[in-house]
């Protein structure tokens, strides 16, 4: 027991010492090297499928295509008998419901179909599945201070990320494995009018397992929870 305790202290202080030496931007570079060792994200052109599981609801199965060089995004989602499609090519947008593109305003509203929502999905999926590489985007502010935190019983190196006001107001924390630099958790909080974090807001996302898509190590499973009470929201499964 004494040997185990001593070893644990040694590992803990080793992580703390390293965290005090490395800067946030340097930790991010190491994480990107782990997830995208061949720098594939900048020219990403690929398709993947995601199953979304939510409590007391049927699954939503999505096919997602992202072509960064061509500025093309496509999402086809099926839930029960309803199939919706969003196709964004640069500034052009097409919405489809059960194979039909000739939709009345009433039908568009009833199924929440719009170009605004298409752009929202484009940004959402490109951001989440482009992490941590997307943290290099313009307007992203990486805090130079690397923290050592324990989350759900595991030790992590953590960076705080904020954004220019033109990009967003949320405050994000990204948790990296101190040995491999794999991204394993991220968490965000809302802020008030003064820019202070609302402690009872936001969510945290636990990442488990990996899938390699076009040479990039992407998290296979993302489980979403509220920060305020750990309530489970749902899980996205890459398949």
From TrEMBL:
Alphabetized Pfam families for the sequence: DUF6503
Official protein name in the record: DUF6503 family protein
Superkingdom, natural source: Bacteria
């Amino acid at each position: 027991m004494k040997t185990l305790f001593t070893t644990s202290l040694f590992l803990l202080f080793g992580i703390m010492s390293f965290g005090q030496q490395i800067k946030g931007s340097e930790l991010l570079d190491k994480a990107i090297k782990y997830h995208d060792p061949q720098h594939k994200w900048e020219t990403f052109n690929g398709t993947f499928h995601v199953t979304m599981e939510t409590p007391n609801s049927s699954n939503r199965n999505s096919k997602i295509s992202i072509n960064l060089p061509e500025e093309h995004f496509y999402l086809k989602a099926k839930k029960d008998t309803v199939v919706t499609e969003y196709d964004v090519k640069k500034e052009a947008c097409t919405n489809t419901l059960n194979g039909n593109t000739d939709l009345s305003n009433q039908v568009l509203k009833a199924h929440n179909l719009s170009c605004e929502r298409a752009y929202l999905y484009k940004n959402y999926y490109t951001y989440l599945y482009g992490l941590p590489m997307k943290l290099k985007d313009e307007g992203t502010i990486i805090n130079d201070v690397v923290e050592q935190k324990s989350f759900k019983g595991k030790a992590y190196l953590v960076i705080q990320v904020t954004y220019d006001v033109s990009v967003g107001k949320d405050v994000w924390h990204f948790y990296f494995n101190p040995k491999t630099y794999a991204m394993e958790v991220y968490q965000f909080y809302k802020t008030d009018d003064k820019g202070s974090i609302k402690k009872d807001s936001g969510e945290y996302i636990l990442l488990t397992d990996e899938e390699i898509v076009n040479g990039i190590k992407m998290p296979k499973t993302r489980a979403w929870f509220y920060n305020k009470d750990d309530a489970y929201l749902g899980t996205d499964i890459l398949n």
